[in-house]
Amino acid sequence: MAPHADRTHQHLSTPTVLARRAAALGVVVLVALTGPLPSASAATTTLTPEAFGAVGNGKVDDTAALRRALDALRPGTTLKLGAGKVYAHDDVLTLRTPRVRIAGKATLLATDESRSAVFVDADRVEIDDTTFSVRSTTQRWGTFDQMKLRLGERSGIVLRRVTVDGSAAAGIYLWGTSHFVIDDVRVRDTRADGIHVTGPSHDGTIRRAVVDRAGDDGIGIVSYQQDGVPVKKVLVDAPTVRDNSWGRGISVVGGEDLTLRKVDVRASSSAAVYIASEGSPWNTFAPVRVKVQGARLRSSNTAAGVDHGAFLVYAGNPGFAPRDISADKVKITGTRRQASSQVGIRADPGCSVRKIKLSRFTVSGGGHVFSSNVPASAYRRTGWKSRS
Fold this sequence. Notes:
The protein is mainly beta. 5% of the residues lie in helices and 42% in strands.
């Protein structure tokens, strides 16, 4: 994926409160700026969008005011968003200052789906309690400008209790992000993945994420060879994924030293858990040293045209064999009965898997429990229980 070049918009400043009141009375007022716009200083640790002309009613375009507010931040300061406010923006917003915080139970509402991203391009940024939304979408987009909340190749970014309500592409998109923490986020109604981790991202944690009705994978970790190195050392802890309209519940398509813990997936379109290498046109790395530590997978593989079952390990890229994959304490119920198996290990011609260990699976309902087209020496199953 590659971003569009930034385009330039010219916006008039939002009138001051005095000017608005005067206009309502039919009075002409000439306002002279006697000093610079507010800026962060040693004595100013908190700024507000309103100080830069934002209205926050969801109707007035606040793009210019939000940009001034973001650019005025200095390390150590907070941009406090007004509770219940809706700040509309018609272009991409970018945060470039390190060690700042954005906080408040407000909404940043994109009004143009083609330029709807908010881009965090700085180290050690913290965002708390804020909702990122888009007014409407007409199609699935695929460039940086449409990733609703995009985290760049930066370190130490923290998201807490953030909500993404609609996106023209992915909901939360990480490329090359390191030492990140994403806690208690809610993502819903995205055109692409709910949460997508890719590029040289590494050393991060996603805890208690809830993803509803994603347009593709609920949570996707994808490592493309074109990016040079795979995603490494990411923990996805206690995720909940429900009712995605396409794709997998949680996918690991290439990457090293990745852990999925206490997974809960309901009504995934394809596999609930998918661990794979993929060939052309995706050309991904192999998944290596991937652990699934507890999972509940319900009503998986709802799409009749996709034969995944609930849990699938797949090798689709010659020379990039999934290996050292383990899953333990996986409970599967109600998989679409027409799937060829509920749990599968598959390899395309010329591809292979190595050292796959599947322990303590409990499978209830659904159709055939397990299938594989790889040598029995490539995997081990222990402690399985099956109930009709």
